[in-house]
């Protein structure tokens, strides 16, 4: 299975692994699965850090690189296709641009989005796994 970790799931993997459910923890730890962190998550973390809604123990880029290494993950970069798909998503979907990019990327790349976001979990047009 190819997994795309929502921003909060990447944080939980690094900072609060006890927040992950058994199924998502098993999927993330499964060696045969491929794990991705999207560059939009770095943007989201930068915004959260700037607004003081999150504190990271290390500088942002070091934290992100360590988090990706810790899950033996890969970076999924924003593509023009992800950006275009973000605003072609079948309705209804909410307006958060980071969530739109994550869902679009999962759809375009054939990934399962690991998330605790109830709106995404209810969205029938993307494969998801409850974190």
Describe this structure in words.
Strand 4, helix 7 and strand 5 form a beta-alpha-beta unit. Strands 3-2-1-4-5 form a five-stranded parallel beta sheet, sandwiched between helices. The chain is built from seven helices and five strands, in the order E-H-H-E-H-H-E-H-H-E-H-E. By secondary structure, it is α/β, with parallel strands linked by helices.
Could you write a compact summary of the structure shown?
With 131 residues, the protein is of the alpha/beta class. The protein is built from seven helices and five strands; from the N terminus they run βααβααβααβαβ.
The secondary structure category is: alpha/beta
CATH overall fold name: Rossmann fold
Question: CATH homologous superfamily?
Answer: 5'-nuclease
How much strand? 5-15%
Regions with pLDDT < 50 over 5+ consecutive residues?
A: none
Biggest beta sheet summary: 5 strands, parallel
The name of the CATH architecture is: 3-Layer(aba) Sandwich
Q: What is the residue-averaged pLDDT?
A: 97
Helix content: 40-55%
Number of domains: 1
Give, in spatial order, the strands making up the sheet with the most strands. 3-2-1-4-5
**What Rg, in angstroms, do the CA atoms define?**
14 Å
Q: Using DSSP, what is the number of strands?
A: 5
CATH class annotation: Alpha Beta
Morphology: globular
Listing every helix as H and every strand as E from the N terminus to the C terminus, the arrangement reads EHHEHHEHHEHE
Give the N-to-C terminal Cα separation.
15 Å
Number of DSSP helices? 7
């Amino acid at each position: 299975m190819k997994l795309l970790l929502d921003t909060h799931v990447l944080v939980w993997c690094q900072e609060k692994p006890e927040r992950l459910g058994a199924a998502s923890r098993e999927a993330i730890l499964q060696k045969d699965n491929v794990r991705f962190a999207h560059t939009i998550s770095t943007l989201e973390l930068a915004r959260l850090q700037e607004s003081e809604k999150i504190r990271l123990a290390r500088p942002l880029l070091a934290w992100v690189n360590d988090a990706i290494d810790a899950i033996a993950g890969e970076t999924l970069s924003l593509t023009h296709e992800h950006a275009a798909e973000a605003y072609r998503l079948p309705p209804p979907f909410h307006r958060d641009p980071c969530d739109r990019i994550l869902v679009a990327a999962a759809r375009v790349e054939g990934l399962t989005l690991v998330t605790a976001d109830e709106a995404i979990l209810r969205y029938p047009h993307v494969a998801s796994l409850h974190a």
